[in-house]
Amino acid sequence: MSDHAPNPVIAGFHPDPSVCRVGDDYYLACSSFEYFPGVPIFHSRDLVHWTQIGNALERPAQLRLPAGTSSSGGVYAPTLRHHDGRFWLAVTNVSDGEGNLLFTATDPAGPWSDPIRLSGVPGIDPDLAWDEDGACWCTFAGIGQVRIDPWTGRTAEEPRKLWSGTPGAAAPEAPHLYRIGEYWYLLIAEGGTERGHGVSVARGPAPGGPFEPCPANPILTHRSTGHPIQNTGHADLVQARDGSWWMVLLGVRPRGGTPGWHVLGRETFLAPVTWVDGWPVVGELVSGAPAGSGAVSRDDFDLAELRPYWISVRSRSADSCTTKERPGWLTLRARGASLDDADVAFLGRRVQHLRWRARTLIDPTRGSGGLAVRLDERHHYEIEAADGRVRVIARIGSLRTVAAERAVPAGPLALGVHADDLPPKDARSGPDTLSFGIETEDGAFTVLAALDGRYLSTEVAGGFTGRVIGMYAATGEAHFDWFAYEGRP
Q1: Record: fold of 18-282
Q2: Name one Pfam family in it (predicted).
Q3: Which terminus of the chain is more solvent-facing, meaning fewer CB atoms within 10 Å of its CB: N or C?
């Protein structure tokens, strides 16, 4: 394995990575927030090239996200571990009444169990670690810890405080506990998940400490630097088969002028780790083009089941989303009236490139719908077809406007959106431009409206997610023959 890896290794909105190795295979889980299915699971043989093999939470019994779940609510910060021949996944669902949950599987591709509730574990970001006696320790944001029975979720005692990181640092969270050599190491995130984010570590003689902080803390941060990868933190450690150590972590790629706009959400990055005097030392994060740049990902909806990268907002039912009603087509049946609504018939995928284009062929003869770039209910752009017309809609905060409108022939129609970099002009330059339009049979693209990408960024909208591109129905039924996404270098 090389000492460095081009980053991100999993591009787009894939935050809070947690990783484990089983033999020659690596498995990784990420947060999914308000999207269903939840917690994407990836597989790799080299920690660099990852393939999504499923979603851990794919049944309503596993993932409850009612319409009242806010955007950037839902499922936070998984911990994925392999112990005693079984995979274990702990998450927090911040939706009302859900809390910390534990799932198990013998195959990481699924199926995963129904949830085991960790009702005695407070806070968020539950971690799992087993000691030599087989006791399971759950450490959580704060940073506190409690011993649990992982089969029942019951706690063995009252939670106790362990270590809260660098004095004065905000948001000690994302703990992971490991036995490495003679010490137990406690890795945490601190400083908040924005530009002040960082990783710190402490060590002690037992799972409960006492913990001695590393004199070089934070062992990783890009705060107050000009590095192209920012917000680095929320890390997990893994040892490769060859004995080398690696760290997966989240980061963002801001662009444009001040304050810098990141639009893809928090992505998964990889860094080498060496050990000096019993402490982990994190190597350089090398930035580069993500795998798959220039490749076209196309779905002709010819399978009975949807591919694992497709996600919907809060829930998905066969009544509102199916490939079985019209063979070779995706059928979306309207729930909410628009993407402004919490309950909307939407099927999308995470945007994974800084420059990209997406296209779809829609038949809106029995309703209306289109192609949308979504950040949340108050921040989205879309091109919508209905009644022989197409229109480009922009929703930015409390403002909603029709940016362009045009008559089109009745029947199926190819819609498209292109995202292109903006060369920085001054401190006010945005990160990119999103151009919405229609495509003719010969591939010519007619732009109806070009919109400033900064308004679909985390710096404007807030929250913890990134852009998702997909199809939706606004009234009646909308049918989609195919969807194509292409990342461009």
Answers
A1: Tachylectin-2; Chain A (2.115.10)
A2: Glyco_hydro_43
A3: C
